[in-house]
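User: quick one, sequence for these tokens?
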């Protein structure tokens, strides 16, 4: 899934703007393997094992897990991508 639909009334833009999302990379919705929390995180294409991919057509199912901070788990944990948030990516680029 690479659309921003069905997000249970979450504020995806707010999550992306928070420090918890990270500072660089493309926006992905991901699940922490430690606590099961779903949040917007930024991950580089290299971290997702897709260094040459076009982020606007990238599917979450093609991406690998990546390490990122999980505040409830109190440390760096693995996150499984469930969606590449192309809508947020395009709005950041001004498209």
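Assistant:
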């Amino acid at each position: 899934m690479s659309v921003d639909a069905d997000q249970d009334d979450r504020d995806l833009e707010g999550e992306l703007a928070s420090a918890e999302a990270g500072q660089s990379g493309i926006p992905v919705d991901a699940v922490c393997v430690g606590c099961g929390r779903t949040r917007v995180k930024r991950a580089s294409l290299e971290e997702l094992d897709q260094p040459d991919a076009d982020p606007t057509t990238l599917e979450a199912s093609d991406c690998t897990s990546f390490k990122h901070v999980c505040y409830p788990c109190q440390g760096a944990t693995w996150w499984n991508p469930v969606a590449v948030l192309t809508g947020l990516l395009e709005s950041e680029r001004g498209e």
